[in-house]
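// run 5 | inverse folding | seed 20
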């Protein structure tokens, strides 16, 4: 199981404590003091299993960081904050947090919370042909190789998989994603091309995604 943790924590002492403690439980923890750096990392790589998020951060409030994370990924988020009042907890859960730990807490409790969330995520995995799909963590594996899809690519891939062996028009694909409704058809084609490149699908002799001339695409695996 992938056990990569993205930690957003500007208290360097706390950052070091969590990183070292998680290492003892076979988690690889990548820590960031500045939320913008963490967001850029998450936009580039979808291989993380979970985010641990402090709320009192430089430049950006933690709740705004949470909203940004959820706009680019469905990755689970545990809030780790000294702001432990019920109002902050309710707001955090309303914004999509999966758990909320009020500081101070024992690091072992953090590990237990992480393991609980990841075990729930395992139950969300499905097999489709040669692909393993983890919708909770927005991960797709092809023969145990992780495919680095963007958010839109993932949404398109999932839609095609869910409608496999059916022809999906470009309009249907557009409506199933978070793309702007004014997006042109050629933008969908570009995303499909990127997906094909990442899964090693030859558009001239496709194994997974077939083009249906004048209409759209069909997933056939």
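// decoded
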């Amino acid at each position: 199981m992938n056990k990569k943790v993205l930690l957003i924590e500007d208290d360097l002492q706390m950052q070091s404590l969590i990183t070292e403690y998680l290492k003892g439980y076979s988690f690889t923890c990548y820590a960031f003091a500045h939320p913008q750096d963490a967001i850029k990392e998450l936009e580039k790589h979808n291989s993380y299993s979970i985010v641990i998020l402090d709320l009192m951060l430089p430049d950006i409030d933690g709740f705004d960081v949470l909203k940004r994370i959820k706009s680019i990924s469905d990755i689970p988020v545990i809030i780790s904050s000294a702001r432990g009042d019920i109002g902050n907890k309710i707001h955090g859960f309303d914004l999509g947090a999966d758990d909320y730990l009020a500081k101070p807490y024992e690091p072992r409790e953090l590990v237990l919370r992480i393991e609980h969330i990841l075990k729930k995520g395992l139950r969300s995995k499905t097999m489709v042909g040669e692909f393993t799909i983890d919708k909770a963590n927005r991960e797709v594996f092809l023969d145990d190789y992780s495919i680095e899809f963007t958010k839109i690519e993932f949404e398109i891939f999932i839609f095609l998989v869910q409608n496999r062996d059916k022809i999906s028009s470009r309009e249907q694909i557009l409506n199933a994603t978070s793309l702007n409704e004014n997006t042109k058809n050629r933008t969908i084609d570009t995303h499909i091309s990127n997906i094909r490149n990442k899964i090693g699908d030859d558009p001239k002799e496709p194994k997974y995604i077939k083009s249906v001339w004048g209409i759209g695409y069909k997933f056939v695996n």
